[in-house]
Amino acid sequence: MSDCCSQPGLLPVATAREKLLNALQPVSDEECVDTAMAAGRIVAKPVTSTLDLPPCDNSAMDGYAIRFADLQSGKPLEVIGRAFAGTPFTGSVNPGTCVRIMTGAVLPDGADTVVMQEQAEAEGGFIRVSGRVSVGDHIRQRGEDIRDGDALLAPGTRITVAHIALMAAAGVHTVTVKRRPKVALFSTGDELRQPGTPLRAGDIYDSNRPALRAALSEMHLEVLDLGTLPDSRAAIAEALQRAAREADAIISSGGVSVGEADYTREVLEEQGEISFWKVAMKPGKPFAFGRLGNTPFFGLPGNPVSALVTFYQLVVPALTHIQGKTWTAPPTLQAKLQQPLKKKPGRTDFQRGIFQNDAANGLVVDPVGLQGSHILSGLAAANCFIVLPQDSGPAQPGDLVTIEPLR
Length: 407
Ligand SMILES: Nc1nc2c(c(=O)[nH]1)N[C@H]1C(S)=C(S)[C@@H](COP(=O)(O)OP(=O)(O)OC[C@H]3O[C@@H](n4cnc5c(N)ncnc54)[C@H](O)[C@@H]3O)O[C@H]1N2
Ligand code: MOO
Hints:
Layout (H helix, E strand, L loop, with lengths): L12 H11 L6 E5 L12 E2 L9 E2 L3 E4 L10 E7 L13 E5 L11 E4 L3 E4 L2 E4 L9 E2 L10 E3 L7 H9 L4 E5 L3 E7 L3 E2 L10 E2 L2 H11 L3 E8 L3 H14 L2 E5 L10 H8 L1 E5 L3 E2 L5 E5 L2 E6 L3 H20 L9 E5 L10 E11 L3 E6 L8 H6 L2 E5 L11 E6 L2
Parallel strand pairs: 5-6, 13-16, 13-17, 14-15, 17-21, 19-23, 22-24
Antiparallel strand pairs: 1-12, 2-11, 3-10, 4-6, 4-7, 5-9, 8-9, 18-20, 20-21, 22-26, 23-24, 23-25, 25-26
Helix pairs in contact: 1-6, 4-5
The chain binds ligand LQZAQKY5 and molybdate ion (MOO).
Ligand LQZAQKY5 binds next to α3 and α6.
């Protein structure tokens, strides 16, 4: 990896992110999807409950629905019926009586308390209650979770599995979400072969494209996979033109540095525009951002760790914004560094680390070993980035450092 501390013109990471977010428009198209199919989608129209939840007072336990005041006399209570979830008891619990009730069954009229069956002794159609009972025990109140008309999800929310449960329970069977943006993806390099095919001398497998495809799918984006391209201006130009026609954003890997076969950035410059090139980050310095027509372009460095670090630090915020969700910085933690870290002032370092809880020291973090931008084993072993600020120098064991847990 090259050092760039003395090089002027590198954009600080936060400035690069800000420029990206300011330059991009969220997709405006919306579509209606089944609630069950909406995981990961971005809410476009507010989601409102269509009912109270629970819809009526019901039992939280298997037991007996009673009138609390009846316990004063200490007399046995007559069991006059049964209430099941889905099959309510239709009569009324009058003084001196009770109803056998199951979890989830509607609380019968007249009852105000449920006694767990473990606290009731049944004999000959009557029960005797023992132990401490308070009025209202084990009753789930109508509407205590959600009220009819309550706002459930605001526009811009990314729908989680829990949101799907919430909407389904509240009777919301369809939801209006943003259209999934389509992201065109290609990698460049004469040396790149497809996994599953033989390697010639000097070849390597294309690892960036499958990794980026997976990362895009994880974000619930549509992918237009344009394949692995040779180091050829014509091939790159053709892919860029198609991507600009068919996609909402373009991601490439490779060809953004200064080598004699690094054509991606050059072709973009000829056919579109480069808004910025080179960010003060390590790895990932040669990251380029621009446009072809109205379609934003993210040029990731070819080095595999650099490609993924720039994807997570710069492209994820940008694509999140395009999806229609406000991007917020991921939570960070402070952890005690266990080993020294080399670092020169000039770029924000995203070193790969493994953090864990230590009985004596609290949260601690170990760098994964080799930190080169070609070292995929370290990235694969890591569970966090150790984020060392742009102006900082080396870090020592015992220093508190900022870590950003990886998903
Ligand atoms: N003289 C300089 N050389 C380099 C500089 C520099 O500032 N001055 N920057 C270095 C840094 S930092 C990076 S990062 C790389 C980025 O270069 P490119 O984006 O042009 O990428 P390539 O040259 O095409 O490839 C770099 C490296 O990564 C391998 N690679 C490329 N694509 C893939 C892929 N899809 N899957 C797996 N591996 C890939 C490629 O074989 C090279 O080894 O430039 C430095 N050089
Ligand atoms: O340091 Mo490069 O910027 O290998 O990614």
